[in-house]
Amino acid sequence: MNATMLLLHLLGATVWTGGHLVLAVTILPRVLKGKDVAALHWFEQGYERIGMPALLVQVVTGLWLAWQKLPSLALWFSAEGGPVAQLIQAKLALLGLTALVAAHARFRVIPRLSPATLPLMGWHILAVTGLSVLFVVAGLSFRVRWGL
């Protein structure tokens, strides 16, 4: 069961992080250069069908894996949980930041998206992409123990 959950978690991370890297590195520069709001909407509509379920899989499996590593919510948020608790805290903080940036984009930026607001959307995309890479680093830290 642990291996299955880890596999699902990694597949979710692959889709989420990979999709945002593709968006940030290949789509976003063209969108910004051409001020092409439609191209950004096109990518987002297609990506959301797989990206949002992947994020949900990551959250569910991540919480399950965290519980397997440290089966006490109290220890997740205390110094007594040691390095594992610190990594769980880091991943939860990254999740919170991702949710804040995504909510701001969804409710404030995207409804008013225009060629003039594309740079602001670009910053949101770069922020979520950076956070997703940090998620991967934090997750890898459970295995390689280099810490954050």
TrEMBL record:
Positions of transmembrane segments: 50-67, 88-109, 121-142
InterPro entries: Cu-R_CopD_dom
Keyword Ubl conjugation tagged: no
Keyword flag Ubl conjugation: no
Keywords: Membrane, Transmembrane, Transmembrane helix
GO CC term (a single one): membrane
Protein name as annotated: Putative copper export protein
Copper resistance protein D domain location: 45-137
